[in-house]
Known about the structure:
two-stranded antiparallel sheet; mainly alpha; globular; 433 residues; 6 strands
Amino acid sequence: xxxxxxxxxxxxxxxxxxxxxxxxxxxxxxxxxxxxxxxxxxxxxxxxxxxxxxxxxxxxxxxxxxxxxxxxxxxxxxxxxxxxxxxxxxxxxxxxxxxxxxxxxxxxxxxxxxxxxxxxxxxxxxxxxxxxxxxxxxxxxxxxxxxxxxxxxxxxxxxxxxxxxxxxxxxxxxxxxxxxxxxxxxxxxxxxxxxxxxxxxxxxxxxxxxxxxxxxxxxxxxxxxxxxxxxxxxxxxxxxxxxxxxxxxxxxxxxxxxxxxxxxxxxxxxxxxxxxxxxxxxxxxxxxxxxxxxxxxxxxxxxxxxxxxxxxxxxxxxxxxxxxxxxxxxxxxxxxxxxxxxxxxxxxxxxxxxxxxxxxxxxxxxxxxxxxxxxxxxxxxxxxxxxxxxxxxxxxxxxxxxxxxxxxxxxxxxxxxxxxxxxxxxxxxxxxx
Length: 433
């Protein structure tokens, strides 16, 4: 393999591993803050115990997210020096703001939250929990504004052979970035909802701490349903924007080759990279309607996009359908859980299945990012800089060695962290005082 492919694989592996922990940090921080708020409002000890129990899992998850996130940022210098030199004036400023304005705030108040149970008043402790939740999601905003620039560059000017920041307001109000943020936040809440619901179901099936976990289950079932529906609704709006500013990505998502109005969507379809594909059961105008909310709208096909600017079709196509399929299943599962939330113990088969569904929202989010990043290729900054021009001038051996080393270390970290979270989840909450 050449340096470009190895660098792509290394960055993809580092990003995918880091993103295992990001959604739960975003979503579970909000869940814990809500539980603490319930404790302050009602004075019921069970809500305090819930915040402490789910907080243990959150802390392990957060620690792994921090470790993998820091090393990930270094790859912009080690593997993608050309990118850093060309757009560092824009991208670097956003990462700097994320670190100083959000990450430090989050890290500080996590310490206050963890060590302040017996040192702060309940209200002050609740405030620290909300500050952690706000800072976590604020951090995501700046990261996704940076990624939004890569997806749809705005607010820059080409000067001295590089892209330089010209309009900071345009960068931070980039609609693509805010679509990404909302899509990821709703997805993260679904991740948290399914984790809390799955762990609660595991204990309810074994009749452990029934009152504690029934309350957790009812709360998480509502959260999972609302978040899953919000992901689908917001995802449609995000897709409309993708169709407008990234027509090549939309064409790859649907393996759409011929530019046409009343563009059909095929219920049965197997794509190909060269335009050869199997199609059956067309629904006329459906693709035009989904892309532009107008069945007569024109949808650009891949044949009207230069061959060297087309994204990989097969991977983008199947990743998109996997994401949508899993999202649909999550809506159905969370709807059943919400409808039966007050008598869920009457469905032991469902309680037995739910823990095995915890990975599904994680998988849906990973597939979504494959669509976002692979569907943007061959551009590292869409329409502005190709990925092949962004790679560092290093040897394949250097990248290969660091790639193997990184995968080995991350595997050990992942096994240790996930086993620790499973151990805390199975142990259950601390006994009542």
